[in-house]
Every structure is written in structure tokens, then in C-alpha cells.
Amino acid sequence: MIFGRKKIESADSEQGSIINKETEGLSQGQIVRKKFLQHKAAMIAIFVLSSIVIFVFSALKQKIGPWTYPGWWKYGIEDLSDLTTGCKDGLVGCPTASLRPQWLGGAGIGLGEHPFGQDDIGRDYFALVMRGAQRSLMVTVIIGSIGGVIGTVVGAIAGFYRGTVDSILMRFTDFIITVPAIIIGSVIGFHFGNLGVAFLAFYLGLFAWTGLSRLVRGEFLTLREREFVDAARVAGATNRRIIFKHILPNAVGIIIVSVTLLMSGAILLETALSYLGFGVLPPDVSLGLLISQYQESFTTRPWLFWYPGIFIVTIALCINFIGDGLRDAFDPRQRRQITRKDRRDARTAKKASAHA
Q1: Full residue range of the structural domain in which residue 135 is found
Q2: What is the pTM of this model?
Q3: Which residues of the chain have pLDDT under 70?
Q4: Which residue of 59, 144, 171, 320 is most buried, as measured by CB atoms within 10 A?
Q5: Are 55 and 68 contacting, i.e. CB atoms less than 8 angstroms apart?
Q6: Does some domain include residue 210?
Q7: Percentage of the residues of the chain whose pLDDT score is greater than 90
């Protein structure tokens, strides 16, 4: 029994020495960055999400102010063409993309004229999905930014000042939490959905901060009692300096992680609202709106349902994986898995130092 306990203690000591050796001489920011870069799922998610962003925003023609940037795809969302024929079961508008080489009996690898197929009136569905992904990503970023700022400010003020200020802000937060997000979103979409995707995302962001504010409040309540805050008060630091220079940098981990989770929920909220008819409205396009418009075609022309759904799931998963990586990087209790190579290198270095 004693031997087993000593063996466990030796393994824990070896693991601790490996981790301490890796972080020796590094600042807190460098340690966080190193742990995040070692998170394989987060790195893959960043690569996939970056590829999607570049792909969808470069595909179609973009007009930013007085400048117009041509896209690499030849069709726009308003271009009409003859419906593709020759599909199975006598259907029209089927996808022309082929991934089977000719030597395997396929038509060869290529995109064809309409790789994602066409809608009911002959519009290119690839262009529609690209525009829908652009709008959904825009909604995600706007809601995450506005909700992150409001949630951080409300939670920081409530947690730092406590007392009456805390009670008022938290009761207001609880009131908003009691109303389901889908109902708030439906009311906002009904009144402001026709103003465009940016206005819709802005108003949704005004009600998306409640969960983040409670987390930030709890973190501020804990940090304000720490010794470094007392030392700052004794040194004559103002409340503003204590909040922004001492407490907020130590709470940035939970803020970043919560904002990423808020962004992944935002794209699903926009999808649900558009599906119910309260989100992005025609002639604009979003991924949720495409699913809503062609839900009845799922059994006959399922590609009209698949492609928007694939983009929604992929974007949401990527943001969640990035949030998991940030959480593990900022949490000091999270330790990466020690591999056999790490243990072997540690033993070699220990023997070398002993012989020296």
C-alpha cells in the first residue's frame, strides 16, 4: 500500500516537473498562448472557420461603400438561368458537383454549372448559400460583440460596487432571463427584421448579455477580495484603475470563453428566428431562411436542406471548439496530457543532471 502511494506521488511529481519546466520563464500571457496553441481541436477549428470566412466572403461580389470587389463565382443571388435537367426521378435543379473520378465510373471531379443545385425559380443555390453564410456570420459577430460589451460592463459594475447597485442590476438581469430568448427574438425580428441583418443583430445583441453578466459579476466578487486589490487601494488607486488595471485583466479568461459560447448560440438563434419567419426577411438571405423556405423539399430535393444545415453545424461547432480551447488555456487547473515522449525526455534530462 505504501509502495503504491509512493509510486503515485512520484508520478505526480514527475508530471509537475514537466509542466513547470515548460512554463519556466514565461509570462502569464505566454503560458496562455502556448496552452491554446497546443489544443489540437481549437487549432483545427480556427483553420476551418477561417477557411469558411475567406471562402464565403470572397465568392460573391461585395460592395463596401464606394468600392466594389468582384467575387470569383460567376453567379449572384439574383441571377436566373434555366433549370438543370437530367436528374434522378425526373427532378430539376439538381447539383452538378461531381467528386467521383471517371476511372471509377463517375463524371469526373468538378463543380459543374451549379454545384449546389438551383432553387425553384432557377437561382444558383451555391450563391444563395454563400450569401446566407455571410449574413449568419455577420449576425454572430455583431451579437457576440454587443452582448460581450454590455454583459462585461453590467457584471463588472454589479460585482465591484455590490450593495444597492448590485441588487438593481441583477434584478433587471433576472427579469430579462425569465423571458425566453426565442420570444424576445421573435418580437425584435417582427419589428426590425425588415431593416436588414445588421439592425436585427444589433437589437438581438441588446438582450443577449444576461448569462455573461452573471458570470462576470461572480468573478468580480471573488477578485475584489484578493490581496492585490487591497494593495492597490492602499497605494491610492481609484476604483476605475482597480477595475480596468487589476481586476478586469484577471477576469478576461472567463469573458473570452463566454463570448465565444455566446457567438455559437447567436447563429443558432438567428437560424431559429429565420426558420419561424421572424429573422432575416427576403430579398435578403440567411442560412436559417434557406432552411425555412425549402423545408418541404427535404424528401424530394434534400440538397436544398443539406448545404445550409452543414454550414450552420460546422460554424457552431468550430466556435464551440475554439471556446473549449480558450477555457483550457485560461484555466490554471487544466493540465495537458503528458505523453510518453515527455516522460522519457524528462527522465533523460534528470539522469543527465544527476551525472553532471
Answers
A1: 26-76+118-345
A2: 0.79
A3: 1-28, 65, 85-86, 89-90, 100-108, 110, 331-356
A4: 144
A5: no
A6: yes
A7: 18
